[in-house]
Write a structure and sequence with these properties.
With 379 residues, the protein is α+β, with helices and mostly antiparallel strands. The protein has a domain of 212 residues. The chain contains 15 helices and nine strands. The protein has a five-stranded mixed beta sheet. A four-stranded antiparallel beta sheet has the order 3-2-1-4, with no helix packed on it. A hairpin with a 4-residue loop joins strand 5 and strand 6. Helix 7 packs across helix 13, helix 8 packs across helix 10 and helix 10 packs across helix 14. Keywords: Carbohydrate metabolism, Glycoprotein, Golgi apparatus, Membrane, Signal-anchor, Transferase, Transmembrane, Transmembrane helix. This is Carbohydrate sulfotransferase.
Length: 379
């Protein structure tokens, strides 16, 4: 029987991909998870196991196959609480408690987790929806230091993978690891690659962390990377579809190559309820990529304070003192990083309505991670 996850979600919620103006995400925040040794949070993600009743063994194989395809929604599953982690943010060492900088960073983490927890509680749902291990497929595993890292593209993920590889003994230095090795070498394990017990054990005992970035800035960074430089995947797959749908009198060359997508066309695609090509992890919601209301992340870092947050995390987990978070930019290294000023210049190309709909599209990420409205005219 296929292993499935179960979470609580309001089935009446509208998919933001079908209605960009609707501010709730499809995988809406649910009741915040709990610790095994804590009573302040209640976890709502459950694992569906096999029902070992004898009658199941006597079921016609064809009928059983049909039931499997319906995700066993008519059976009463045996439920085991998932992710009731006995861990929290690792405690400061006694010698660190007099360090004002460490204490300040520790309090920042507590506040970020509080805001995330409160947002989850506010937008929780009570109806159940079954999902698959896909929802932990973005989580990378480092067993030596017992880390689970949810990958958020354009928020330092390449360098974080380098750090995990060094921690795992796969390289002696982050500088030795090339970009293609990081993303295509398959050296790091993903959480969905483990069996049920392996997933359960790691969710409950490892330190879970993610790093996020201001949503508009992350979006512009992804657009610049994928559409303003040669790319043999995003141009033919996304570019051709976007130009064909949204550009009037497009040239044959543009339709053939998919190169030269304009930011306004890209936003039209993003907000279209009938977009001609699917979503991509580089501009998807963090709420969908990492399910922060289902998985009780112990550490929430921000791209805007990356060096400080990352090195604080490495200190907390007891990483080697000579390991620090890399500063280098390995793709388009001669190009300036996407900043607030650059982001505003791109969004200035849009109408006020398009900016508002874009904000609505990422509203849960803005709310959950406490980012300010990027434009004063947004509501």
């Amino acid at each position: 029987v296929q292993e499935l996850f179960m979470l609580q979600i309001d089935s009446s919620e509208m998919d933001p991909y079908q209605n960009p103006g609707y501010r709730y995400s499809l995988y809406s925040p649910v009741n915040a998870p709990t610790k095994l040794q804590s009573t302040d949070r209640k976890q709502n993600i459950m694992f569906v196991m096999k029902d070992h009743q004898k009658k199941d063994a006597e079921v016609n194989p064809i009928g059983l196959h049909k039931r499997r395809r319906r995700f066993i929604i008519k059976k009463s599953p045996i439920l085991i609480a998932m992710n009731s982690s006995s861990l929290n943010l690792p405690m400061l060492k006694s010698e660190d408690r007099n360090n004002n900088n460490w204490k300040s960073l520790y309090q920042i983490q507590r506040e970020r987790k509080r805001i995330m927890r409160d947002t989850c509680s506010k937008y929780k749902s009570n109806n159940r929806r079954i999902i698959t291990p896909y929802h932990v497929s973005r989580i990378f595993v480092e067993d030596k230091y017992r880390i689970l890292y949810c990958e958020v593209p354009k928020a330092g993920c390449s360098n974080w993978k380098r750090v995990l590889m060094v921690l795992n003994g796969l390289a002696s230095s982050t500088k030795d690891i090339q970009h293609n090795t990081v993303h295509y070498g398959n050296y790091l394990k993903r959480l969905d690659g483990f069996d049920r017990k392996g997933i359960y054990h790691r969710l409950n005992t490892y330190t879970k962390m993610l790093f996020i970035r201001e949503p508009f800035e992350k979006l512009v960074s992804a657009f610049r990377d994928k559409f303003e430089h040669p790319n043999n995947y995003y141009h033919p797959v996304f570019g051709k579809a976007i130009i064909s749908r949204y550009r009037v009198n497009a040239s044959k060359e543009a339709l053939r190559t998919g190169s030269g997508v304009k930011f306004k066309e890209f936003i039209q695609y993003l907000l279209d309820v009938h977009r001609p090509v699917g979503m991509d992890i580089h501009w998807d919601h963090v709420n969908r990529l990492c399910s922060p209301c289902l998985i009780d992340y112990d550490f929430v870092g921000k791209f805007e304070s990356m060096e400080e947050d990352a090195n604080f995390f490495l200190h907390l987990i007891g990483a080697p003192q000579n390991l620090t978070f890399p500063r280098f930019k390995d793709r388009h290294s001669n190009e300036e990083r996407t900043t607030t000023k650059i982001t505003q210049s791109y969004f200035a190309q849009l109408s006020p309505a398009q900016r508002q709909h874009s904000y609505d599209f990422y509203y849960m990420d803005y709310l959950m991670f406490n980012y300010s409205k990027p434009f004063e005219d947004l509501y």
